[in-house]
Design a protein that fits this description.
Low-confidence stretches: none
Structural class: mainly alpha
Oligomer: single chain
Number of strands: 0
Radius of gyration: 26 Å
Strand content: under 5%
Amino acid sequence: MRHPVDAGARQRLLEAQRAEAEALRRVETADKGCTSARDRLAAADAKLLEAQRTLVRTSGASRAALLLGVDETTLRRDLRRADQSSDGLSSQVNS
């Protein structure tokens, strides 16, 4: 790699490298924040689904849907999808 001969060019290169390093640090920090937010959202979704399952077991799907203000078909579908997703994950872990 060639080094700039001119002192001004070297200074501009160093400034550009510093700016690049700072921008990269900011990207990494933002990425960590996004990952953390996704993890918290996944945990909240899991709690919500478990609470919905409990309500369905306690009150039945029709009553649970009425209490939640959602369509019964939608509630059943969402719970079934969550069960299939968790079954898929556990079978991958056990493989």
